[in-house]
Amino acid sequence: MEILDKQAFLETREKLFTLSRSLNIIKQRIQISETDRKKCLVTIKELNLLTPETKTYKAVGKMFVISPIETLKTELEQQIEKDEEDVKGLINQSKYIDAQITDTERSLNELVRKK
Fold first, then answer.
1. 19 near 102, Cβ under 8 Å?
2. Which of 7, 88, 95, 103: CA 20 to 30 A from 110?
3. Are 53 and 107 in contact (CB under 8 A)?
4. What SS3 class is residue 91?
5. Cα–Cα distance between 26 and 42 in angstroms, integer?
6. How many Å apart are CA 113 and CA 76, to the nearest integer?
7. Contact status, residue 83 vs residue 72, Cβ threshold 8 Å
8. Tens digit of pLDDT for each residue in 7-33?
9. H helices within the chain, ranges in order?
10. Comparing C-alpha atoms, which of 45, 38, 112 is closest to residue 73?
C-alpha cells in the first residue's frame, strides 16, 4: 500500500510542477501582450502629433515601406484589440490553471496527511 501512496505522491507533485510552469508561461505571455499594447498606444499618440502630409514608414521584414498615417493608425488599433483579446483569454487560462493548482495542492496535502 505504501508503494502506491508514494507513486501517487510523485505523480501529484509532478503535476503540480507542470501546472506551475504553465502558469508562469501564461503570465509571461500576458506581460508580453500588455507591453506590445502599450507600445502601440504610445506609437498612436506620437502619430497623432504628426501632420497628415508627413511621410511615415512601416517596417516590413528588413525594409521600410512608405505607408499613410491613417493606415498605420488602423493597423496599430487592430493590434491593440488583438492584444486585449489575447490578454482576456490568457487571464481565463490562468484562472483555470490556478484552480487546478489549488486542487492538486489539496490532493498533495491529503496524501501527506495519510502517511
1. no
2. 95
3. no
4. helix
5. 24
6. 54
7. no
8. 888 888 899 999 999 999 999 999 999
9. 2-49, 69-114
10. 45
Distance from chain centroid for Cα 11: 27
Cell numbers 492584444: residue: 83
Confidence bin at 50 (pLDDT 50/70/90): very high
The arithmetic mean of pLDDT across residues 85-99, rounded, is 96
Q: Give phi and psi for 60, each to the nearest 5.
A: -130, 100
23: Cβ contacts below 8 Å, ≥ 6 apart: 94, 97, 98, 101
Residue 79: count other Cβ atoms within 10 Å of its Cβ. Answer: 16
Please, is 26 exposed, middle or buried when counting C-beta atoms within 10 Å of its C-beta (0-12, 13-18, 19+)?
buried
CB 83 within 8 A of CB 33: yes
Do 68 and 115 touch, CB atoms closer than 8 A?
A: no
Whole-prediction pTM: 0.82
d(CA 83, CA 73): 15
